[in-house]
Amino acid sequence: MFGLILKTFxxxxxxxxxxxxxxxxxxAPMGGFTQWLIRRFxxxxxxxxxxxxxxxxxxxxxxxxxxxxxxxxxxRPIADSSTCIAVSPVDGxxxxxxxxxxxxxxQAKGIDYSLNALVGGRKEDADLFDNGRFACIYLSPANYxxxxxxxxxxxxxxxxxxxRHFPVGKRNVSHMDDLxxxxxxxxxxxxxxxxxxxxIMVGAALVGSIGTVWDGTxxxxxxxxxxxxxxxxLMFERGAEIGHFKFGSTVITLWPKSLGDLELYMKNGAKxxxxxxxxxxxxxxDANFKD
Length: 291
Known about the structure:
Helix content is 24%, strand content 30%. It has helices spanning 2-12, 15-26, 32-45, 63-67, 115-118, 123-126, 170-175, 179-182, 282-290, and strands at 84-87, 92-99, 104-108, 111-114, 133-139, 146-148, 153-161, 185-192, 195-202, 210-212, 216-217, 225-228, 235-236, 241-245, 249-255, 261-262, 271-272, 277-280. It is globular.
């Protein structure tokens, strides 16, 4: 019953309009008011300003300039490739991380959703990850909001799927069916030396925009858009920045089972940081130890 009430309320609430207005406000330079907002945000969410590449708060002209702040390279060390296959693409909290079973991903206890729908409905894309593994990581407003590569790879294509902007916090994840296939998202498919990998950037309420380093801010539209980058040789190293969110949201990573096993700590509720090992390799670690 609670799920039905929540769904009805949020369908009737103009979240996309509120998201649009929020993006305009947070992208506007407002002088002293912007500085007040930034300082209140730092205080409320206990942001460690010393991690920022630019610690001069007065140089941030808009709230979003600070929200998508870059960090010093040493603030997020990248796990050693000798014992790690892939790293977390973001800072956040693990929602679910496990096997994809019969084309379904777990959203929460008693709720799952379709792999095919998640990637935009194209069978050839879904087949790459069927019976593979996934990790869903939620970014709260307090988190660092730039998105990085889990492992070395070449961008093959992106699929932009327009949708709603429902909140993606724990309450909605636990009660709203198919949440991640209802919201706007950008599916980025890469080829790695170990096979295909997808990084999916899921929008949510008040997410002003999704941006990528190769194509700028994603333009919201009414239909699904597939862009082919396979001939452009867009190569990204593990840990390289590939995009950002202007406010909290979720990143879902997909890979075939042959790529490797999830680290044991990748459980519901675990806190992770960008660069931390997400897919370990026990054989590599054992070989290193013996050497």
